[in-house]
Each structure stands twice: as C-alpha cells, then as structure tokens.
Amino acid sequence: MAPVFWAAGLGLVLVAAAPAMADEAPKYGGILTFMIPADAPPSFDAHREGTFATVHSAAPFYSVLIRVDPNNPSSTTDFVCDLCMAMPQPTDGGKTYTFKIRDDVKFHDGSSLTATDVAASWDTIRLSTYSTFVLT
Fold first, then answer.
1. CATH for 63-127?
2. Within 10 Å of residue 57's Cβ, how many Cβ atoms?
3. What is the pLDDT of residues 47-82, one digit of tens each?
4. Mind spelling out the 3-state secondary structure of 66-116?
5. 106 forms bridges with which residues in the sheet?
6. What is the pTM of this model?
7. CA angle, residues 69, 80, 99, in degrees to nearest 5
C-alpha cells in the first residue's frame, strides 16, 4: 500500500508545481547535462565516428540535408528536408540530385550555411580514409 501513497503524493506535488512552472520565463544559456548509456565516444567527429555514443551525443547539435520523416521513423524510404527547401527530383538517370539550401540556416557564429559548406561535408565523408561511411 505504501507505493500507492508515494505515487499519489508525487502526483499531487507535480500537479501543484505545474502552474508555477508554466509561468516561468525560459532561461537562456547555462549547462545542459544529459546521460547516454554508453562508454565515452572515441571522438565527437560525426563524420568519423558511427558509434552510439557519438551519434546520440552529437545529434541535438547537428542538422542534416535530409532526414527520415519523424512522422514515419521506421521508414527507410520516406525522407523530408531538414536543411533543404524541397526534395529534389533525380536527373541523369537517378545519379544527380540538386538541392536548394534554406536561406535561414545559420552556424553558431551567425554565418550563413552555403552550398560550399554542404559540399565540404560530403567531400569529408566521401574522401576520408577514416570515415565510417563509404560513398563511391
């Protein structure tokens, strides 16, 4: 019976605190600490590492050109734009895709994302001798 009273008491505390928390203004800055159930990653280079610890610790800080549709996360073919304006239609027999990059994307220092930046990332993945991804 004690666990029932404990759970009920916790529920009352959370309900009582909810209105006060809703009135608080968002706090900017500070430190976010979160745990990933894995050993420390070998590095935080998302182009180089494919480990669970790297992917999940870096994911909140990176956007990608396209991503799996969050409304259909188990799909391996349903993609939506993240950094692009619209999903392009392939040309050249499916060998060429031309993406238009969103104008509102900024780096942490305020500089705009350009097609040159995206190409540099792809080249890092494609040409790297240590990448966990193989593109030909």
1. 3.90.76.10
2. 19
3. 777 777 777 777 777 788 998 898 998 998 999 999
4. EEECCCCCCCCCCEEECCECCCCCCEHHHCECCCCECCCCECCCCCECCHH
5. 112
6. 0.58
7. 160
Give the integer Cα–Cα distance in Å for 56 and 95: 31
Q: How far is CA 16 from CA 13, 19, 21, 41, in A?
A: 5, 7, 10, 40
Q: 3-state DSSP call for residue 136? A: coil
Residue found under tokens 């188990």: 74
Comparing CA positions, the residue from 79, 45, 77, 49 lying closest to residue 64 is: 79
The tokens for 70 are 């969050």
The residues spanned by each domain of the chain are 63-127
CB 84 within 8 A of CB 66: yes
Q: Of 52, 41, 48, which Cα lies nearest the Cα of 124?
A: 48
Residues 119, 101: Cα–Cα separation, whole Å: 11
Q: Annotate 18-41 with b (16+ C-beta within 10 A) or e (fewer).
A: eeeeeeeeeeeeeeeeeeeeeeeb
